[in-house]
Amino acid sequence: MSPMHWHSRVWCGTLIDCPRIGQVRIRENQTVVVNQFGFIESVEGGPQTEEVLRARYPNSNIQILSPGCFLFPAFCDLHLHAPQFLYQGTGLHLPLMQWLEKYAFKAEERIDADPELARRTYTCLAKRLKEHGTGTVLLFGTIKERSNLILAEVMQSEGIRAFVGKLSMDKSSSKTYVEPSPTASLEAAKNFVETVRSLNTEGPKLVEPVITPRFVPTCSDELLDGLGKLAKDENVRIQSHLAEARDQVNWVERERGKPDIDVFDAHGLLTPRTIQAHCTFLGPACFDRLHDRGTAIAHCPLSNAYFSSQPFKLREALDFGVKVGLGTDIAGGYSIDIMNSMRTSVLVSRMREGQRTESLLVPSGPPVEEGESVSIDWKDSLYLATRGGAVSLGLPENAGRFEVGSPFDAQLIQLFDGSTQEGVGPLDFIDGVPNESAISEEMLEKWWCIGDMRNRIELWVQGRKCYERRQ
C-alpha cells in the first residue's frame, strides 16, 4: 500500500510559527500531513480543494481551516510547581525564603499526605494548562514518589507532554518536609526515574522523569554530587533554581562560601540537559558559562517581579547565545497562562530599556547607540513561548515550529468568524477584516496583546487532540 494511504490526519490552511528569534512566519494555503505517530510528514504550499485532498489522502482525516483560523505551535511552560497550584493566586506578599516556609512547603506536604488531593489538584492543573494552550510543561513535584507518579499518570492521560521532577532535598528550613539523608534521597530519585520510564501507556508516551534538586539551600554537596552522576549515567534532564532572589543568593554565599552557579557546576549539574529557572542575579560571565555548558534558562518574569529585587537580563542572555524559554512559575507567578508570561517579558524588557536610556540622558553622557537596546518585542516572546521552549528542552529537531519531522503540537486559533467577519472573544476589528481570509501581522499582534482562551478552539499534542473548546 502506498504511504499516502495510512496518514492519520491532513490539515489545510494558514500556518503561523516562529522559526527563529524575532521572526514570525505566516504561510497561507499550506497542507500539513501528520502520520500515525503524531509527527509531521510533509508541509506543502498551494491552495487545495477538499475534493483533491480526499482523492489524494483517501484514508485520512482531513480538516480545512475556516477563514479567520490558523494553526500555531502549542506553548511550552519551562517552570511550574504542580503542587503549588493548590494555592495559585494567593500569598505573594513575603520574600522568597519566608514564602517557601509559610506556603510552598505546607502545600507540598499536604499533597504528599493525601493521594486524592493530589489527583484532584493535578487533574484541575491539566485542564487549565490545556485551556491556555500549553502542550508541553516542565514540572516540579514533591518529595514523595507516590504523589509524583500520580502527577505523571494524570499528565499522560490528559495528553500533555510533561517532564516530571521528584524533588530532591535533604536539607530544609521545615523539619517535617525533608528527606532523611543524601543516600535516601538519591535512592528515591533513581527509583523514580526507573518507574516513570517503565510506565505503560496507551498511544505515545508523553511523560519523562527529571532530576530535580530544589535549589542549593535544600541540598547537601553529597546529594548534589550524586544527582549529577545519576543524571549523567541515566541521561536524564535536570531542573532547579539559580540565582533567583537576594535572600536566596545571600543564603548560599553564607552557607557555601560561593555563588550557587559554582555549586551546581562543581557537581556536574550544568549540562545541555539542564534548565535553570530565573537567573536574575547572573551577568555576562555567567551567561557565557551557561552557553558553554549548553544549559538553558526558564524566564519567569511575573514571579521575578514578586521575589527578585532585579529583573532577568533577558536580552543579554540571548545575545550570549543562551537557550531561553518562558515559565509561569506557579505559584510564585499567579497566572498559568503563558500569554501572560509573554506579555510580562516584553513589559519588563521595555522598562529595563527605558531605565537604560534615561541613565544616558545627561548633557555629558554618550548618545544611545543603535543595537544596544535591552528590550524584546512581541515576536521575540512568541518564539520564547514555542520554539525557544522546545530547544531548551531538547525536543526533536524541528519541534516548536511546523516543519517535517516535528511532533504535531499545535493549537487551533480563531481571530474572526469567516462568515460574519466579526472578531472572536475579546477581539474587535472596527474597520473590518482587510482581507476575507488572510491573517496579517497586525491581527496576530492584536491576538498576542488581548487574545484569550476564547480564541483557542483546539489543542493537539503529538498528533492527538487533547482539548476542544466548549461552545
From TrEMBL:
<dbReference type="GO" id="GO:0046098">
    <property type="term" value="P:guanine metabolic process"/>
</dbReference>
<keyword id="KW-0479">Metal-binding</keyword>
<dbReference type="InterPro" id="IPR011059">
    <property type="entry name" value="Metal-dep_hydrolase_composite"/>
</dbReference>
<keyword id="KW-0862">Zinc</keyword>
<dbReference type="Pfam" id="PF01979">
    <property type="entry name" value="Amidohydro_1"/>
</dbReference>
<dbReference type="InterPro" id="IPR032466">
    <property type="entry name" value="Metal_Hydrolase"/>
</dbReference>
<dbReference type="InterPro" id="IPR006680">
    <property type="entry name" value="Amidohydro-rel"/>
</dbReference>
<feature type="domain" description="Amidohydrolase-related">
    <location>
        <begin position="70"/>
        <end position="415"/>
    </location>
</feature>
<protein>
    <submittedName>
        <fullName>Metallo-dependent hydrolase</fullName>
    </submittedName>
</protein>
<dbReference type="GO" id="GO:0005829">
    <property type="term" value="C:cytosol"/>
</dbReference>
<keyword id="KW-0378">Hydrolase</keyword>
<dbReference type="GO" id="GO:0008892">
    <property type="term" value="F:guanine deaminase activity"/>
</dbReference>
<dbReference type="GO" id="GO:0008270">
    <property type="term" value="F:zinc ion binding"/>
</dbReference>
<dbReference type="InterPro" id="IPR051607">
    <property type="entry name" value="Metallo-dep_hydrolases"/>
</dbReference>
